[in-house]
Design goal:
Helix 8 packs parallel to helix 9. The protein folds into 4 domains: about 35 residues; about 90 residues, 3-Layer(aba) Sandwich (Glutaredoxin), CATH 3.40.30; about 250 residues, Class I glutamine amidotransferase (GATase) domain (Rossmann fold), CATH 3.40.50; about 35 residues. It is built from 13 helices and 23 strands. The strands form 6 sheets. An 8-stranded mixed sheet has the order 8-7-9-10-22-21-18-15, with helices on both faces. Helix content is about 35%, strand content about 20%. The longest helix has about 35 residues. It has about 475 residues and is an alpha+beta fold. About 5% of the residues have low confidence.
Amino acid sequence: MKNKIALKGGSYSLVLTGIVLAILIAVNVLTSVLPSTWTQLDISSAKLYSITSNTKVVVNALEKDVTIYWVVQADKEDDIIENLLAKYESLSEHIEVVKKNPDVYPTFAQQYTSETVPNNSLIVECGDSSRYISYEEIYLTEADMTSYSYTTSFDGEGAITSAIDYVVSEDHPKLYMTEGHGEPELSAVFAEQIEKQNIETVSFTLLNADAVPEEADVVLIYAPTSDISEEEKDMLVEYTENGGKLMVMAGPVEDGALTNLYSLLGDYGVEAEEGIVVEGDRDHYAFRQPYILLPELADHEITNPLTESNYYAIMPIALGLTVTDTSGYVTQLLTTSEMAYSKAAGYAIETYEKEEGDVDGPFATAVAVDCGSGGQMVWFASSNFLEDMYNAYSSGANLDLGMNALSFMIGEREAVAIRSKSLNYSYLTINESTASYLKVMMIGVFPLAFLGYGVYVIVSRRRRQNETV
């Protein structure tokens, strides 16, 4: 009798164990075929293993097949990039990730770029269109001017989504940049961001043209050192009044004045004061330099992203704009305090103290103008605010401000609104003895304790069964 009961109990335990194992195997198999977005939880502070809604909008709208070639040697895959690529592949049946080992395919990348291709670089291709993404474009290293150190950020999602948007699109926005008035090259960070946003740049001059080219989505006048002519002004007026978009970054110049250029604003009740704006309020300038302004940000589509993220724009060496318009066509984006004044001496300034001839503020240092018929102007009264140094001082807020202005005029696009993710973590560091202690507890003590408890439960049940019989 006892043997029958024991056999029955053992058979029951064996069957139950088999059922549990079968369930576990089934769950594991099911989990393995589910998209990684369903099975992995991102608990990293920078959300390195998550993708934004912007990417989902771009990827879900795909109608063409996109191949992402991952140029990587065997066993040298970057875990973060691997996880990110898996998420892209799981989001759309139009995306395929293909590994290309440079040891096996040494000439593969030469079809797409003449550059040296580091390990873990990517090539995004759709039909005849492709874009190469270097590993250095995924992990960005920038100088932090506030701490005199370097910060590292991960821009994998931004780079990949931008590349996908680029290769599947037939038409890209065109930014026409004027020449012929001492305009310098765009700052490095500004030029890189424009390229990332898939905006094509074209240099042109109005000196030998009859009108602004019709294919120009936006015209940019960047840091001119000499004035435009009356004829050029008339062409720009006609362009904006007929729905054109004009973006100007023009501050004080060392020789002469930008009279004709600034007369474009005069038609809308905005006058420029000659000189350099100096702040009298310590809360509105940075680094103990009264000409490096920290202006107030207005409530506007261009400035709201900075306000919401508690960023400050820096406007160095700026002209003061006085707005008399009351019709509502002009929005003051950035404004000084009431204690600001314009130093008439300009670049010949010898003191920051207010002197006779200096003009009292407050001033606007950036404005947005509705020109009617869809035409717009966004005007920054500083030629220097997008320089790499000042952008670093503002922790990237100046670049965001400039790109927000471009997006405002071109139209917001999902692929260009993805910021890089900081990799400056605070790590938990423990000494070797603590690490050894944790290993013993996790690998030895806890498993043995659970095993001992399991043996105790089984023995106790057997005793109760024998006593019952």
